[in-house]
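User: Hey, my collaborator sent me this sequence without any context and asked if I could get a structure. I don't really work with proteins. Can you help?
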Amino acid sequence: MTKGTPAKGKQSGKKTHIRCRRCGRHTYHAQHKKCASCGFGDTATMRKYNWASKVAGKRK
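Assistant: No problem. I've predicted the 3D structure and written it out in structure-token form, which is a compact way to encode the shape of the chain:
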């Protein structure tokens, strides 16, 4: 089996991530039925972590 350019033709045309209804970002996984960005489909609260914010690491 060869690698590289010929293998690109074997890729499926399925879309893994589509636009999320809640946050509007292109991070909703169509098969998993879950948004990677806001957590829609998995939790009622918005997905949020302190490490994702630049303000979290600042000292007063």
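In plain terms: The chain has a mean pLDDT of 87. You can pass these tokens on to your collaborator as they are.
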